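Open question from group meeting: does this chain pack into something compact, or does most of it stay loose? Before anyone orders reagents, we agreed to write out a predicted structure and look at it together. Recording both the input and the output here so the notebook holds the full record.
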Amino acid sequence: MSAAEWLGAPIGLNASRWVTRSGLRTVLAVVHTVTSGQRLLEAIETVESDPRVQVVYTQGPDAFSNGVGDFLRDTEGVVLDWHQAVNTRFDLAVCAAYGGLRELHAPLLVMPHGAGYSKTFDSGTQSESYGLDAQRLTHNGRMLMDAVVLSHDSQLDVLRRQCPEAVERAVVVGDICYDRLKASIPRRDDYRAALGLAPGQELVVVASTWGGNSLFARNGDLLPHLHEHLPADRYRLAALMHPAVWFGHGRRQLRAWLADSRAAGLLLVPPEADWRAVVVAADYLIGDHGSVPAYAASIGRPVLLTDQPLQAVPSAGSAQESLSATAVRLAPGEPVVPQLESARQRARDVSAAVAGSITSRPGTAEVALAEQVYRLLGLAPSGRHRAVEPVPVPTPNGW
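Structure tokens returned:
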């Protein structure tokens, strides 16, 4: 898009000629991936109803940008071309990934897009937690972020080791995703009914993150194995694939790879659906080192973990590390049903360990995050804080 094609409203030098409301604080939501965009929407929802605030969106540069265009269209918000976004000044930019942030002209608030900051990378001298490191949070020795949102007090210790200059800009708010999962538990029967589960039928969810160490990469025969060994009248299978699997390989390709399982009754949850309803509805979850198994365990769902190679070991103190240390391991050659029962028996102890690692401020995230957004905008909070809402009931037609 050339400068001549840039939007003239609701932002821009001459926007006041065209807008109905003027003098608003402008918030830019920078969506790098579908996953980060889903998390950002919950931050945006804390302020977008305020009549003093205008929210606009843009697509930030990222290797997993496939699907973001459709995601942004579905928000029905104003979407700016990236080049216009980096040539415009905003009152705040909110992000859950890091590409291109140094080009923006706005105070920056960054938040995790999963269960905390659980992934590690080799910095050349040591293993570090991705997202809490100086490589991501600074540029040319200058702090990029005006607020670094944390879900747990222990992440402050990680910041002190990896990027001490960021500590004074860090704020522990808790975990919105966890809070909404907890709020959704009373609607479990509604979710199960919407997914078509028969009375007495048990839902087994298989969850895979992306990449070569993921369940889908390393355990490609798991779904056929489960279809063979779990009686269809008692068990129903669902699959939650990370959006990067969907968009890294393409919707058509993934559906083709799983065609036999879908024909056998698999519910393949699309990337735009709210996966949390499926987790709340689940009786068991089989997963890898991604965020979904940690969230499932945190609300008491029995979890079986597939084997994790050393490269996939999550960062110290993370919810994924707690889950890895306490959950039952899936033994591929053994009968499945007894293993599910073993996971059920361990679920309470595993849940206590994981929930304590996933957030140190349960139930506070939405209000605390809104306070930070208003602080950076220079506005008094609106005072209209809603109760934490359950996630929507899914509409699985066509899954």
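Observations to bring back to the group:
The chain has a mean pLDDT of 92.
The first strand starts at residue 25 and ends at 31.
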